[in-house]
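Hypothesis: this fold can be encoded by more than one sequence.
Test: take the structure tokens below, design a sequence, compare later.
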């Protein structure tokens, strides 16, 4: 059986390519546990992409001969901070950038131009007196499996953009995901109040290192990730 992935236009990051977290989450499902996914090229939209197992534990996403992304088993050595409350996360969203300021306003995860039940509408803003950004998130039924649980690729997507806004600080400039290592502890249910957070870990030239996590309203960890971003 030949496995393929088709990234629908709905799941874009930049207008003409797939959202990095979503694409990585789709590919990560071919492995178990903690998975590291590296993006090599912008994932094209509305085109069947081949999933190829290399035989040495890696899984590649390919467009013809070009490798778009590569997944492998990973390690995740990060300390996850305590989250703000759901109300504090909702308040932090009021400090988010406007549609006019946003570099990718139609991004599936964080685009302010996306409407409810179309984008995730995760809008991570600064949390006062905390070195983090946060957003409230209530997943809708379009993200659900048959059991009312949010599908894994959307949990991965929720771990994507909070990292970008954590490392950008007050400067709004284009930034793209290079790689992400993530672990899902428990997938949320549709309609569950969730808290998405991001924090900066380090920087090195154009590279930015970020941690992200998803929590339940009670503060229980649902998922966590470490990502490398590149300013463009």
């Amino acid at each position: 059986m030949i496995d393929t992935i088709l990234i629908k236009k709905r799941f874009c990051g930049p207008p003409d390519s797939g959202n990095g977290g979503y694409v990585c989450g789709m590919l990560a499902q071919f492995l178990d546990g903690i998975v590291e996914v590296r993006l090599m090229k912008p994932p094209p939209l509305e085109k069947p992409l081949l999933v190829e197992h290399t035989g040495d534990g890696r899984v590649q996403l390919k467009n013809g001969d070009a490798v778009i992304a590569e997944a492998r088993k990973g390690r995740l050595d990060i300390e996850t901070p305590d989250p703000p409350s759901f109300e504090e996360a909702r308040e932090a969203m009021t400090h988010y950038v406007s549609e006019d300021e946003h570099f990718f306003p139609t991004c599936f995860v964080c685009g302010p131009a996306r409407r409810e039940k179309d984008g995730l509408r995760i809008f991570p803003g600064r949390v006062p007196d905390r070195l983090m950004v946060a957003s409230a998130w209530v997943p809708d039924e379009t993200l659900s499996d048959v059991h009312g649980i949010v599908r894994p690729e959307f949990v991965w997507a929720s771990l994507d953009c909070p990292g970008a806004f954590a490392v950008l600080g007050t400067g709004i400039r284009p930034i793209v995901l290079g790689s992400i290592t993530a672990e899902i502890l428990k997938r949320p249910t549709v309609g569950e109040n969730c808290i998405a957070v991001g924090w900066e870990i380090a920087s090195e030239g154009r590279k930015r290192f970020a941690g992200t996590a998803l929590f339940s309203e009670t503060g229980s960890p649902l998922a966590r990730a470490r990502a490398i971003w590149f300013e463009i």
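The chain has a mean pLDDT of 95. The two ends are 38 Å apart (CA to CA).
Hypothesis status: open.
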